[in-house]
């Protein structure tokens, strides 16, 4: 069950467990959407999955994993410029100290 009104907060030891659960829930939704259960055409699937990643980022913006996964997916579907922009946005807005991104 996902709380669609949960707002991303910086990760701290105090909230790490809760934030981890939120991330895992979104990752499960994303995994499902990427399997295309609605049997959408390619363009529609790309739009749908991108929107779900954007929704997940609203709750998980301070998790490097969500941005890395989103960028990797964009790269996989040959949206190279968007993949680069995704990582740039993550670093500039949410994770400036994250060396992994």
Automatic annotation (TrEMBL):
<dbReference type="GO" id="GO:0005634">
    <property type="term" value="C:nucleus"/>
</dbReference>
<dbReference type="InterPro" id="IPR011990">
    <property type="entry name" value="TPR-like_helical_dom_sf"/>
</dbReference>
<dbReference type="Pfam" id="PF05843">
    <property type="entry name" value="Suf"/>
</dbReference>
<keyword id="KW-0539">Nucleus</keyword>
<keyword id="KW-0677">Repeat</keyword>
<protein>
    <recommendedName>
        <fullName>Suppressor of forked domain-containing protein</fullName>
    </recommendedName>
</protein>
<feature type="domain" description="Suppressor of forked">
    <location>
        <begin position="11"/>
        <end position="99"/>
    </location>
</feature>
<dbReference type="InterPro" id="IPR045243">
    <property type="entry name" value="Rna14-like"/>
</dbReference>
<dbReference type="GO" id="GO:0003729">
    <property type="term" value="F:mRNA binding"/>
</dbReference>
<dbReference type="InterPro" id="IPR008847">
    <property type="entry name" value="Suf"/>
</dbReference>
<dbReference type="GO" id="GO:0031124">
    <property type="term" value="P:mRNA 3'-end processing"/>
</dbReference>
């Amino acid at each position: 069950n996902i709380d669609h009104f949960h707002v991303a907060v910086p990760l701290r030891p105090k909230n790490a467990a809760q934030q981890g659960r939120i991330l895992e829930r979104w990752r499960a939704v994303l995994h499902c959407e990427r399997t295309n259960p609605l049997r959408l055409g390619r363009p529609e699937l790309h739009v749908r999955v991108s929107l779900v990643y954007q929704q997940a980022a609203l709750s998980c913006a301070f998790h490097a994993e969500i941005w890395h996964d989103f960028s990797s997916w964009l790269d996989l579907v040959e949206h190279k410029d968007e993949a680069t922009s995704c990582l740039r946005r993550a670093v500039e807005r949410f994770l400036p100290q994250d060396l992994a991104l």
